[in-house]
Amino acid sequence: MATLKKKLQGLVAATLTPMTENGEINFSVIGQYVDYLVKEQGVKNVFVNGTTGEGLSLSISERRQVAEEWVTQGRNKLDQVVIHVGALSLKESQELARHAAEIGADGIAVIAPFFFKPWNKVRAEEVLDGIQDKIPSFQGLKFSDTDLLDFGQCVDQNHQQQFALLFGVDEQLLSGLVMGATGAVGSTYNYLGKKTNQILEAFERKDFSSALNYQFCIQRFINFVVKLGFGVAQTKAIMTLVSGIPMGPPRLPLQKATREFTDHAAAKLKSLDFLSTADLKGRNLGACI
Amino acid sequence: MATLKKKLQGLVAATLTPMTENGEINFSVIGQYVDYLVKEQGVKNVFVNGTTGEGLSLSISERRQVAEEWVTQGRNKLDQVVIHVGALSLKESQELARHAAEIGADGIAVIAPFFFKPWNKVRAEEVLDGIQDKIPSFQGLKFSDTDLLDFGQCVDQNHQQQFALLFGVDEQLLSGLVMGATGAVGSTYNYLGKKTNQILEAFERKDFSSALNYQFCIQRFINFVVKLGFGVAQTKAIMTLVSGIPMGPPRLPLQKATREFTDHAAAKLKSLDFLSTADLKGRNLGACI
Amino acid sequence: MATLKKKLQGLVAATLTPMTENGEINFSVIGQYVDYLVKEQGVKNVFVNGTTGEGLSLSISERRQVAEEWVTQGRNKLDQVVIHVGALSLKESQELARHAAEIGADGIAVIAPFFFKPWNKVRAEEVLDGIQDKIPSFQGLKFSDTDLLDFGQCVDQNHQQQFALLFGVDEQLLSGLVMGATGAVGSTYNYLGKKTNQILEAFERKDFSSALNYQFCIQRFINFVVKLGFGVAQTKAIMTLVSGIPMGPPRLPLQKATREFTDHAAAKLKSLDFLSTADLKGRNLGACI
Amino acid sequence: MATLKKKLQGLVAATLTPMTENGEINFSVIGQYVDYLVKEQGVKNVFVNGTTGEGLSLSISERRQVAEEWVTQGRNKLDQVVIHVGALSLKESQELARHAAEIGADGIAVIAPFFFKPWNKVRAEEVLDGIQDKIPSFQGLKFSDTDLLDFGQCVDQNHQQQFALLFGVDEQLLSGLVMGATGAVGSTYNYLGKKTNQILEAFERKDFSSALNYQFCIQRFINFVVKLGFGVAQTKAIMTLVSGIPMGPPRLPLQKATREFTDHAAAKLKSLDFLSTADLKGRNLGACI
Fold first, then answer.
1. Which CATH number fits the domain that encloses residue D51?
2. Per the UniProt record, which EC number(s) apply here (chains A, B, C, D) (predicted)?
3. pLDDT (tens digit, 9 = 90+) per residue, D85-113?
4. What are the residues of chain B with a beta carbon less than 8 Å away from any beta carbon of chain C?
């Protein structure tokens, strides 16, 4: 693994894996996807093959290919390309980790196996305690729970800023920031990165009132889609709609978002000024979603 | 129910119900308890007969007596005395609500019955929507979950400040404040009210760095006791230790905190400067806990 | 508590609490209810004020009145009237237990408080171990889980037949019988008691093939209503339909069964020969449900 | 996939995957394992690469090798070798299924992906309904839940004996048999197959009293080890102890059973006459576990 030149900070998009209508990976649009994140959303870090990327629905061979494509396309454009290498089989995780190092990824992330698992829940702050002694290359964690006692105590341990502590609950990012998050990883940053950067900027200049207003706008959208049923399939539909890049359907066992969902989501995005009619010009929504 | 003169704000202590060694209610120390909260902890609102007060372990007759004693002792000293009237039987809730009005309590709070319950989880922001049409005297809610999307959307609805939106997760109060909480209800405010008021004050003057430091101090304590096993019994032991007012054991099915717990908690409180040796002068800890 | 003359055995109906349309208890039909159970369903034991009876939705005073009415109406007709006295407040459980003894109930049953509860799950077979040393009047338990390792080990301990071990999962009664249950408590025995007695009889004469067939018939009905949404409200609607005795609506927070549910359930009962057109003669279904 | 000559019936051992001390697969003892199952335990069917076999902790390549070894060693000795091919990635499941057919396995079994999953729980009896129209080669299912309403309704549908309905909760096998199971799959059949066959035989000749006694003996053992903490690691230790064939440690994230566990389990097995001193003659228990 290459030494990290700088700490991961700011927003990290948990990338989707674009697919063709028959469920094969559509590598051809990943270059366009990189440009869209950087230019349109102001997001320069990606988290590849995670939950949003359907990493665990891909074969090991596919995960390697997807990782390679992001590293290749992101060169000189993205700050950091982090590859998720978690798998139920630790042997496969190790293989993916070695591969990520070989191709020059900026980092790896890993979830522990979860079919067999330890009998006791371990909290993040306990894992963090002394971890660089065990894993010298350890750089930080993505915290995707709302237990801010645990997250806060991770931050409390991080007094020398030795770790990147990335918050992973997009809809309440502000609560992670106030508790000391150094960045954030999430699926909504694919299409709401620009809006979310406004939260980061307002927070940075201590304008909490504006930060909260931006957060509420984003919450209104998430709250709306959560009630309709919101997951990776729906994220693919929204990203296709907003970016114009076809993300395709999810792979089974997920089911494609319904047309009804997409119509409702589009209307909500427009009502919140997250999507302009100009953005949609020339797009055949029926075809691309 | 008396009309509320002013919105409930700031800290609200979820009061313990003091008991004698054989599990009967010790009404005699409630006056002293009121003075301690006001003078030593700077807390002028109480939430009586809730979880912390073992309300559901008391008989209806006992709940009435406890409510009366707090209203009586709190007169001209406390800002608001809120009585929790939730019960599995709605008939009993109604009886308790009428009683609270008769004795001049400042408000009631209620949890829905939870043995039989609706098939679908309803979110707080959905409950809040239009509630003053259905319950004209509705004043606000205590939100004791870490789902800040839901809480945020409650705040988002509250643009006319028509509701008191009280956050109930002490160990991450700051995340509730940044999301727009107008106050907080919790069991730790019995003995950490003064420390917690420092968070409120720092937040008010936009000194987020200090607010976070105060929050971390409190988290260190809560994190410590949570790992030892922390509930109402342990809160009684800690409050006895810190305030010097005997809270007694909890009522079955809860078990008294162990001496080992209390010793560890006392050591931690001292190490965090939450408890001075002077505080403990002349107290027979072995006897009072 | 009166000494039990004989062990509780066979079927025990978990009784419904009949209510008027406005949610008050309809004591006037309990006598008729007793006669129906004995004569039409062949059920001579009742379990009063349990979940099926909405015991925890009643006030303590109502629970006493309901218990008295069942004891009075059941005299010389029922074998055993067991009163459930569980409550969140142990003081109230104790009051109800004393009352049950005073009115001459044949036994009490109790669930442990469940708002505050022990930290570790305790299995029934552990509770049973040595219990008569602690509670000399202990007679047995109602086991309402599908964990038949636990239930089997209760039976394994019961080699001197000192306990009544009653199985409480109606839809798989046969599995409880083969594991050694000495009887059964359930809500379906109100209206399927006669059919269920056929299982008991076939099992007794070792005709397992018939026992299984009877069990499957009952499963077809339960499977059908479970998919529609099945609880106490729906049980009240079915019992009203089958017995002709008006059970009324449930008390809030439960909602009355829909007309659609009742129509579907009635059609299913007829298709399974659990309800004949003759049974329904002269009943105004629209009015009585 | 070869056409199944006969329905799968009787006991099926969910096989362990023998490993060396450093966590590599120990293929060399699988032949001996086959002979042990057939000759010492009277078990002639195996279920390979399931939970007990740590299938999901193996790489795809390892799963193929393990499957091949069981098919090869089982030829002319075992009745049926069933390969579990479930994986989080359906692509990988498909690859494993094709491979199983190529090597001449007698059948495959599969769990659905469980990281992403459908929003609604589907019951087994609903899955079974009309399944042979969708999957003409479908042969049956392993039911590993204690919900015998669902299992019973599967049996109820199986009136033409078109399916093998195998029960998978070893500790309550008798309840599955009475509900109509046609066989059983489990980890305890590796070392308690002979004892369990006594249940099957007693049940077959309608000697329910003996069947229940045999079941209770097995329950006493399982109940004992469950309280100590019982999983695949512990099963490996017990199988090593009883069979004398070294199963080795589990692969991470599981941890090897403690020596204390093995000592307690051995003592219990002896006290139940499940293990004789003669069985242990010449074994260096310290070394082999």
1. 3.20.20.70
2. 4.1.3.3
3. 999 999 999 999 999 999 999 999 999 99
4. 51, 54, 56-60, 62, 88-92, 95, 112-119, 229, 231-232, 250-254
